Amino acid sequence: MDENLHILQEKQLLFILATLLCCLHDNGGVGSDRVSVSVTEGDSVTLYSGVKTNQQENIVWYFNDVRIAQINQDLNKSCTDVQCNENTDKFRGRLKLDHQTGSLTIMNTRSTDAGNYHLEIVSSGGYSVKTFGVTVYDVSAANQKETKSVKEGESVTLNLGGMKKPDDLMMYFFNDALIAKVTGGQICTDVQFDERFSGRLKLDRQTGSLTIIDSRITDSGVYKLEIINISSITVTKGITVTITGMMVGDPVTLETPAVDKVSVSIAVGFCVIFVLLLLVDHLFCRQQKTVTCDFNCGKEILPI
After folding, report:
1. Do 146 and 240 contact (CB within 8 A), yes or no?
2. Contact at 8 Å (CB) between 57 and 154?
3. In this structure, are residues 13 and 110 in contact, taking their beta carbons and an 8 Å threshold?
4. Which residues, if any, are the signal sequence (predicted)?
5. Residue 152 has what pLDDT?
6. What is the pLDDT of residues 235-266, one digit of tens each?
């Protein structure tokens, strides 16, 4: 509960900073602000309005000058995509409008979603415009896989392309439960949030990749990376991980414990000495028998 409150406070702080940036360009009159963001096909991206609706704003979103979402002043009317414009169903249910903040989320982005998104806010305090330039990068067929499958005990690295910038807040979720976070220069993993991984998580602060060591079947599920930056944009990336158990017929590598070479040398030395002692004893006994035999034979040939 405390951790969730802490996350909420961090998001609120970023929201306030974005609002302040917007106000610097507004000052109660006509303002304009532009933010750029790059995502990969399949990601979700949230474009924050920088305001909180108080039944006094009329918020309208445009994509390349076509209205795609709207909330009117008394909140009794809102629309997204085809509801706003009968001539287009471009996003096909992939838009989500937050009625509390007016923020717009584009889910499962496509290359055709690239372009300029304009936000117009009309209130008693004035009129402001904000523009988001969204670039959507294509991915190869090899990288379009949204699932990863490994065998139990193997390590799996989730490289979701979340290259971290200094001011970004990065959070990893496993089945919607927070398991790792990077904020500033601080990294928090597993036991601070979820003990099920028991020190088996490794987070790269440079690339943002997350490695699960000694994977278990219970690690199977949906992993999401959420990146929140000071430019009032959230990018969400997801992947499904499947951990399979060992099957009959699967190759198994048996590892022998490490052996101290010095100990082996000492043991071999003792064996050599022992064999030499046995050999000397054997030769000595044969010599003794020969002497006894010769002595007896000599006694037999002596005259009486």
Report:
1. yes
2. no
3. no
4. 1-29
5. 93
6. 888 889 999 986 655 565 544 444 455 555 67
Query: Distance between CA 39 and CA 60 in Å, rounded?
Result: 23
Least Cα distance to 208 among 242, 233, 237 occurs for: 237
- Please determine, for residue 47, whether its predicted confidence score (pLDDT) is greater than 90: yes
Tokens 């000058």 belong to residue: 65
Cβ proximity of 238 and 224 under 8 Å: yes
Is domain 147-244 classified as CATH 2.60.40.10?
yes
Delimit the CATH 2.60.40.10 region(s) of the chain.
34-137, 147-244
Which residues, at least 6 apart from 32, have a Cβ–Cβ distance to it below 8 Å? 25, 128, 129, 130, 131
Retrieve residue 85's tokens.
């414009």
Q: Give the whole-angstrom CA distance, residue 187 versus residue 201.
A: 11
The answer to whether the beta carbons of residues 230 and 14 sit under 8 Å apart is yes
Contact residues for 183 (Cβ-Cβ < 8 A; gap 6+): 10, 169, 170
Return d(Cα 104, Cα 98) in angstroms, integer. 6
pLDDT in tens, 4-25: 555 555 555 444 444 444 444 3
Look up residue 275 and give its two tokens: 């064999």
Q: CA–CA separation, 19 vs 57, rounded Å?
A: 15
Name the class of domain 34-137. mainly beta
One-letter amino acid at 220 equals S
- Say how far apart CA 279 and CA 116 lie, in whole Å: 94
What integer best gives the mean pLDDT of the chain? 74
* CA separation for the pair 174, 181 (Å, rounded): 12
DSSP codes, 49-113: -SS---SS-EEEEEETTEEEEEE-TTSS-EEEGGGT-TT--TTTT-EEE-TTT--EEE-S--GGG
Residue with tokens 């009032």: 232
Q: Are 97 and 104 in contact (CB under 8 A)?
A: yes
- The per-residue pLDDT for 203 is 84
Alpha helices in the chain (DSSP H): 2-26, 261-301
Q: Length of the chain, please?
A: 304
